Amino acid sequence: MEEAVFNKLGDDRITSRQIDELIGLARGLAADGDLNHSEVEFLQKWLAANLAISQQPLIRTLYHRINAVLADGVVDEEEKSTLLDTLNSLSNRDFELGEVMKPASLPLCDPAPLLRFERQAYCFTGTFIFGQRKDCEQAVAERGGSAGSLTQKTNVLVVGAYATDSWKHSSFGNKILKASDWRDQGRSIAIVSEQHWSSYL
């Protein structure tokens, strides 16, 4: 029993040190407001090395996210912007990756509407538990809908579960504000959480 307690305390110390180190790395990498390929690869290697001794969901989730970004060998502008948002959030200790956004701070439809996919146009913004944005878009396409940029023909805007309370200042905040304005003007567009969307898959 005592041994288990000591092991748990030791694991907690390791995890705490890892998170402090990761926050320091995030702060350094995001300091200039840009990310290059070698910086993303460096972060991937650090996460891989620490994954073996960590039960911390933050490290595991970020590692899988970066693997997905690097899978095609290119870090495009959208991927770079999303990663920068994540690193800035870590730097500011705004949230932990793995902690779901508190819906009260988002202009989600209340009550959340029934969703269908056939002949419906979806747009995705933010960072998703489900996978990369293209994975979410593919899930919609497989069910008879379409997905892409936010336009006045968009029926549903889905907001990824990983976000910060300062979403208005993030790179994906503009889409949410625009869709919210359209809805206020009487246009038929729903704004829903990833959890609500995924419950219909």
**So, CATH architecture of the largest domain?**
3-Layer(aba) Sandwich
Helix content: 40-55%
**CATH homolog superfamily of the largest domain:** BRCT domain
Gyration radius from CA atoms, angstroms: 19 Å
Count of individual helical segments? 7
CATH class of the largest domain: Alpha Beta
How much is the average pLDDT? 79
Strand proportion, as a percent range, falls in 5-15%
Tally the beta strands: 4
Unreliable stretches: 1-10, 94-104
Strand order of the largest sheet: 2-1-3-4
Protein name: NAD-dependent DNA ligase
InterPro entries: BRCT_dom_sf, TerB-like
What keyword list fits this structure?
201 residues, alpha/beta, Rossmann fold, 4 strands, disordered N terminus, BRCT_dom_sf, TerB-like, NAD-dependent DNA ligase
